[in-house]
Amino acid sequence: MAEKDLTSVERYRNWYIRLLRLYPKSYRERFGEGMSQTFHDLLRERASGDRHLFGSALWMFAETLTEILKQNGTLFVMRHRNILRIALATALILLGVFAAMQTGGDIVWSGTDFVLAGVLLFGMGVAAEIVLRKGNSFPYRAALGLSLGSALFLTWINLAVGIIGSEDNSANRMYLGVVAIGIAGALAARFQPHGMARALFATAIAQTVVTIVALLTQLNSPWEAWLKTLALNVFFALVFAASAQLFQRAGSAGPRTTPAA
Fold first, then answer.
1. What are phi and psi of 253, to 5 degrees?
2. Is the pLDDT of residue 254 over 70?
3. Which of the pair, 62 or 129, is modelled with greater confidence?
4. Which residue from 3, 65, 109, 251 lies 20 to 30 Å from 18 (Cα-Cα)?
C-alpha cells in the first residue's frame, strides 16, 4: 500500500472519529471504538485493492450520519415523549377550535388568540410535567392540577367570550394580571408548597379585587349579565383559595425535594 494511501486512511479515520462524537454518549461509548476500527480496516482493504478511497470514505460517512440522526431522534423522543404529547395535545385542541370556527361556531379567534392559547396550553402542560415528575404527595399534585386547570380555564374563557361583557372589552385584561400574579408567585416560591400556598392566596385575593371592579363596571347591565359575572368570578376565587389550602396541607405533610431550576 502506498504511503499516500496510508496517510489518507489515517486522515479519514480521524475525521470519522470526530463524526462519531455526534452519537449519544451511551451509544458512542459502547460502539464507537469498534466502529472506528471497522472503518479503518475497510478503508485499508479498499486501498489495497486500488479502489477510490474518497468515494468509499464518503459513502461510510453518509451511512454513519444517517444512523447518528436516527439514534439522536430516538433518544430525543424517549427523553421528551411527554413533552411531545403535550405539544400534540395542544395542536389538536387548537385544530378543534379552528374547525369549530370554520363550521360557523360562535368562537371567533384572531391569529394572536391562537398564539396566546397555544403558548398557554403548552406552557402549563410543560410546567405540570416538570413539577409532577418529582414525585410529590397527592395534596401537592391535586393543588397543582387545580390551580393550573383553573388558570387555564379562566384565560380560555377570557379569550373566547370574555367575562366582563364580550371578549373585546379591555377590562378583561385584568384577568391576565390575576394569572400573572399566580405565575410570578410560583416562580418566586420555586414551587415549594408553603410558597405556592402564599402565591395562590395572593391570586385568590387578586381575583376577589377583580370581581369587585367587574361588578362595579356592570352596575347598569342586565341582572343576568351581572349575575353571570358574579358567579364566574366567585368560582375562580374559591378555586384559587382551595388550591392554596391544598398546597398548605402538602407543606404540613413534610418536606419535598426541591425541583430543579
1. -75, -20
2. no
3. 62
4. 3
Q: How many C-alpha atoms does 105 have within 13 Å on its Cβ side? A: 13
Does 260 have pLDDT greater than 70? no
> What is the average per-residue pLDDT within 232-241?
91
SS (H, E, C) the chain: CCHHHHHHHHHHHHHHHHHHCCCCHHHHHHHHHHHHHHHHHHHHHHHHCCCCHHHHHHHHHHHHHHHHHHHHHHHHHHHCHHHHHHHHHHHHHHHHHHHHHHCCCCCCCCHHHHHHHHHHHHHHHHHHHHHHCCCCCHHHHHHHHHHHHHHHHHHHHHHHCCCCCCCCCHHHHHHHHHHHHHHHHHHHHCCCHHHHHHHHHHHHHHHHHHHHHHHHHCCCCCHHHHHHHHHHHHHHHHHHHHHHHHHHHHHHCCCCCCCCC
Judge whether residue 247 has pLDDT over 60.
Answer: yes
Task: Quote the pLDDT of residue 174.
Answer: 87
Q: Indicate the angle between helix axes 81-102 and 111-132, nearest 10 degrees.
A: 150
| Least confident among 14-23, 48-57, 188-197 | 48-57
> 106-114: long-range contacts at Cβ-Cβ below 8 A with a sequence spacing of 24 or more?
106/161, 107/160, 107/161, 109/159, 109/160, 113/159
